[in-house]
């Protein structure tokens, strides 16, 4: 098994109508589990890493289902605390064509909200750990969890663990101001910063010029400045930014840029027919971590992360169910989708 | 359309694995809606009454789905207030044979919890209303809702509306002590008291002799005293008690007793092969209300209510989807289940 | 392949909610095909006979689906005429416990209604044919089809083909008076008469004493007289009567009696847990025909027919998907339902 | 609630295989309900109008299901007459790529065919009504229904109700000659005429030059003349024509033109990835009615109607399950399909 | 986590039509995984033991699916060897009423057939191990696997591990003679012998008097002699025999007897409504191991094992998804199946 | 019925997750049947030919299901031999966007592997037969089946039957060397050779210049030389080559070339949105055979074959469920996918 990687956050029950049915039409919901950091953990387990997920879940059957969904794919769940009353829920309606996907959160008061330091033995958690990953979603839940996140970062740093953070701004969870304030504190501990084409502007007010995210076109050059400004402000080792061009809910272009404090590396751009868009960013983060831990050079790293997340868009559910080989094959050039037999 | 009947309470999203799958095995959940008082409203709409449901639901798509599930069956939803953050949820796992059904509540903090007097115009609601029905589940949610329930009862009384209450003790929601205290206050306003074979003991400590509810046998005679004692204590006009004998999760015997302050009326006893047991008690309550409003004599009343709820056990979901004709046909004697063609 | 057997009638699209859902709850309908005489044809094909089905179906895809459902199980469909506007439909709601199954017919105006003599080459159809089977459902459709049925019977007789008829009274299709009149004409040609515990009374007013079909008990002895009276009136070679005791919609007792003009043969009685009750009588008729053509003695014949139809009650859909071996094994005594591995 | 709008026509049971399965492959059919005018009613209810649907349905459970499907979405069904023998049916096979969708009608003899004037109290129906909508499908059913339609139009005019009519030519229901003759009579009462790129030619022989509807390209300019000619002939207040360019069964371009007797207003053109194409035209009609009643200017009106119907193509089923807000958001420019969270 | 328990055998892909559909009717198969020894491992993981499963699976996605199905429920899969060409398959058709369930094996040539000693490091596997469980199915596959089984038993004995064996005769896999010969060799190492009411007769010719397994009745007393004879022959520490009485495919009585070389302990007898019968015996074995490791007295042990396996019959799939608490509650007396809420 | 056409090969159980789920996510598999030559037989039956399929299948229910899947669509299955132990299986995971479809074969040791000459009466099979079709998949299974194939070809030639062969190279079944050797022997008997854009290179080392099949572009001109070289080497009457351009797993361009030894005929090129790509080549072969037997000229022949196979890509499952009329309509120019109603 490859290196130990820890991720920390919330895993939710995802309730989604089948296919393209709208909420009001649905009589059954697919019941799967997901959440930004859990998605990263599953990706890393799929790549052969010793992925451990840290969270808190209620001590009932639905909580156990969430754990089982991680165990099934080889994520170590032994650090997960049990307690609290409920599992967070998000309802997902898949968009199509000009109709956007819709997310309804029902996560307030979930078990992670009432977690305390006593729930997590950070020293044991970070022992022999190579990487720690968090996102901007977890501290957005409530002040208590924000503090737990900062505490975890401190502990990780003490143990010499590399830290990555996906800014992942969610405007249904907190204001831009609050986000900017809290994320600035967290970014002090972060080595590798991950963002999408909007996050830096939303959280820190750092904007790319000439880009309108709803128009289906992004100005690649403008993101060089965004990365450089982020690095200047927080001293990141690396900044990676995904560049989504939304033609419509079914068709997106997908690429990314990596900045290592010196050079800018742009990936290939994929034209994607989307199966499930949720978890796309998380699969990029996981690809970046995996490529970094494997010691790939910057261009190979960004190509791996983008190919990994391109494939995610063809997979149902939050989790990116692909292997190293599959990602490397796409990064190496075969996107023709020919049958393998 | 027949008389106006109002019910007040919570309607929840019911998430249940298909067939006899356990929670940990399920990848999809049937997504329907139900709740004690809503179930009564649907039954009454099915019988042709002008059933109106009063509750509070969040102003998002899932809240709308709950409303639509009522509108679909002809319940008037125009008194439903919109607001708050979440819809209550209950997870249901259907039991089989010696394995009991399981319910996990996730209803804390739902929109009804934060309802206020301003959400409901009781004077309009009870105008020209013939009957008001509540259950012991609603006041069990929290003190705020308990007070709203009492307020509604007062208003109903002012408008001369007949009030029925199903004691419906839920030990996952409150203690027996708290239940006894609050329900005693509510019972002051109640005309018709409905209970199952355990409720009077749980809520008011009034026990039937020689009955062990887990043994599959109940002592019918003992319930005469329970009804008489309840009437003595609260001055009810009528007391109706359902008598379930659980052979196992699939097979139950089902009957009931009605006490009108003078005589005791026992119904036929049905041996049931259960399809879905949830909402069985509610369908009994609805049958009792319907028969009362139709002016049936006591024996016909209890036969109607028991036949109605017997049929409910053969119907999937919380709601009792049967018509007056179907109930009358069974009450009149044909339980042979022969194909109608 | 065994002898050639021809059946004539209507095959309908059967639309049925999944499991025990009621019509008003269903968002999908299982779409299968069935009808009394088609069901007999499939059973006989399953037993290895050269079963040929004669009907008329519209020349569109749904008509083709009905044909394919027969071809799939080895029924020869080459005599089926194409034409007319629509396929007959029946909606089926499966009952449970005290709630009966429900059938809604939408078959008026289907392709068979407008069939003419020119659609069927009876001489070719009955060439080398050993048996012809009809039921009381087909002539009930309309006068035109009743005449076609009589014409077919005449032709069959000319070719020396043995004729069986299942009385199969359907009160949603015609009155008892009309049924009695038309069926009397048809019975002139019939050699083997099949009926259930109610048909003889409904069609010809011949009643068994002391039997209330809705009470779950039948008086076996009373049917001796029914069979003898039928034989007296129409000169049947054999009369077979099925005796269903409906405990409820899930549990029935099932047995039958055969009268060969001399002796009365009663079968074993099976206590059945019902999966799908529709087509139960048809599977009995098919069993009787098969056993007769195989040359079984009267007791073996009635045991075979009853075991065959007992198994049908455990099979979803109209068609009885069981083999000779399976029937013989049950008739021979093993109804324990032990796993075969 | 916004203004009262009445629509009149047939609502059918829609039986459709799941996904892209062909009829001959399907073992289950999705069972939903739809029909041109009912689809318009649901759209309008979704926009907050007091939508009332007038039709006739059989007095059995499947008829009730159709009513419930409308009640569920807030359409008032109290004017619906019950009677007759059957509900109309249409079988729908969804096309893909170069394979077209297929519709098989089985609607002859449905309850609406045998409706009479006595079934509908037009004076009550049109009291306080702002708009009446019909389509060319209803009069195509049979002469009786055509007369009822004309009667309704007369009554509507008496009550000063604005009338819109979607020409909606269906060549499986009547000939072009018959259509031209009957529709000409109806158009005398119509204020707002709605048509697709083929209707005017099919019904009235008014053709746009240089357009081949199977080639995936329409000549926008040619439709100016069509609208002007229609107006000249029938004195319409407004004519709206949808312009579908079929690339293949999955991909269409979609736009429309509005003519107010003076100017021609062309909408944006959307490139759509189609989820369900049925009801696309109806959703356009509903959008046009809504925008008109809201008092939008002509350009905003046509943009609203086209955006509404563009969204319909992303929704499963006949009904357009979208809100005013969603339509306005797309009309206002965001068709990027980005996740809303 | 409780003690380490190892089981060794084959895990297969189980392909089964939904509900009660027969093979010839099914268009989809539920795709789950199971096998006698894997089922025991899952049960033990559910009870909190450190259950480890040893087998060999192909190195492709379906092999991985089987592993994931075990990981999901907490079984340690790190000892599983990868290699070979195929996963064993069994097709299962669920019986109902008088129609028995049917199993078709397609397991020949699966990865376990070609396993070698090099695939398993027995010393590591049995380090700190408390119990080793095997069944008569594994050695029945082929001589190679039979030898591997004996090798494993020897190694387990060297490490002082307690060994249990479920005789589990499968007549589709080998003859009674071959079974008797091979199982006799294996039984030399076995401490706890488990059998059903037929196994001892099939494998070793040791018969209970007066018992006909197809008649629905077993002679409890006769099994005392069977257990005593088995103990005499092989020196077992304990013998446990399950006693199934098959009323029909849906209804069975279920009980068992434990013999500890001195006394005979009979359990309660449960009347079961069966959901899924496969894995019933395995869940008994797992219950026996768990109770033994927990140090229960003989009566409590047999009650636990029988209650555990009684519950299994109410659970879909091979695996017994129940907890210690649930089993203890039933063993303690509550089989009423009342809803827990 | 049109001419008799015989195809010979294997039919497998196809197990495929629904929609775009990956293997590791699936809890149910669609269970259909298919295989290169069986697919051709079904297409021809759909076109009205007397299609007969020759293979060997196990004598159990799953074998029977495979037969039924062919009977359902009108293929004559009376030449199919029964015997052997298992049916071949292939697991199919449908790809999307940049993720390719995946096939796992589990066909070794299936009933066809152990077939012998005695299983097939070739003289009867080829009596009055117009065409015999095989593919390169069947001889790839094992030497025994390769010899059977050659034997069949010899017999067909004796009976003057025209022979077509689809090279269909499968690198999971045999090496290129072995394929080249065996196929060269078979091609001696072949009149019409069918290949895709890679087969000739894989099997015989005959390459088209300037073509990279993973780049989404093929060099049409290069295939002229391939066809001419194939003809030179084996004396084929006709060579047909399909030219697939894979943009991604959802979008392909599709066209083909026919060489009649004199001229090269290129078809139109279709841009396809793929529903199910498996069986695409087989449907081309069937189209070619049908057009040839119908006597179409070369251009019409290749247009028919390409239109037929274009439509296949829009149909779920291996079988091409389209009629002559549908193919001719597309070949004639209407690929707009407009609804037919």
TrEMBL record, chains A, B, C, D, E, F:
SUPFAM superfamilies, per the entry: Ribokinase-like (SSF53613)
A GO molecular function held by the record: kinase activity
Pfam families linked to this entry: PfkB (PF00294)
Coiled coil: none
Gene3D superfamilies the UniProt entry points to: 3.40.1190.20
Keywords, alphabetical: Kinase, Transferase
Location of the Carbohydrate kinase PfkB domain: 3-317
Domain of life of the native organism: Bacteria
Record carries keyword Transferase: yes
Family that this chain belongs to: Belongs to the carbohydrate kinase PfkB family.
Protein name (record): Sugar kinase
Record organism: Holdemanella porci
Organism lineage: Bacteria, Bacillati, Bacillota, Erysipelotrichia, Erysipelotrichales
């Amino acid at each position: 098994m490859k290196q130990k990687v820890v991720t920390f956050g919330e895993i939710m029950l995802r309730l989604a109508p089948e296919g393209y049915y709208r909420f009001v039409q649905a009589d059954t919901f697919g019941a799967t589990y997901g959440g930004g950091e859990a998605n990263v953990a599953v990706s890393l387990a799929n790549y052969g890493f010793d992925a451990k997920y840290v969270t808190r879940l209620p001590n009932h059957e639905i909580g156990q289902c969430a754990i089982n969904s991680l165990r099934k794919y080889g994520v170590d769940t032994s650090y997960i605390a049990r307690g609290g009353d409920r599992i967070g829920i998000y309802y997902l309606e898949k968009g199509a064509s000009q109709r956007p996907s819709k997310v309804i959160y029902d996560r307030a008061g979930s078990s992670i909200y009432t977690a305390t330091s006593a729930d997590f033995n950070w020293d044991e958690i970070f022992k022999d750990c190579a990487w720690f990953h968090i996102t901007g979603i977890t501290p957005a839940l409530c002040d208590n969890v924000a503090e737990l996140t900062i505490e975890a970062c401190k502990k990780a740093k003490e143990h010499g663990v590399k830290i990555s953070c996906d800014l992942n701004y969610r405007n249904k969870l907190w204001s831009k101001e609050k986000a900017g304030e809290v994320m600035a504190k967290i970014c002090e501990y972060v080595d590798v910063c991950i963002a999408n084409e909007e996050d830096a502007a939303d959280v820190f007010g750092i904007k790319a010029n000439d880009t309108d995210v709803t128009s289906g076109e992004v100005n690649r050059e403008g993101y060089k400045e965004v990365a450089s400004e982020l690095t200047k402000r927080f001293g990141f080792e690396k900044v990676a930014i995904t560049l989504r061009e939304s033609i419509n809910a079914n068709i997106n272009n997908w690429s990314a840029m990596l900045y290592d404090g010196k050079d800018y590396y742009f990936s290939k751009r994929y034209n994607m027919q989307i199966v499930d868009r949720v978890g796309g960013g998380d699969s990029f983060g996981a690809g970046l971590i995996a490529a970094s831990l494997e010691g790939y050079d910057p261009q190979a790293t960004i190509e791996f992360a983008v190919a990994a997340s391109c494939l995610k868009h063809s997979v149902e559910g939050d989790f990116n169910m692909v292997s190293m080989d599959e990602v490397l094959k796409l990064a190496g050039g075969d996107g023709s989708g020919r049958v393998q037999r």
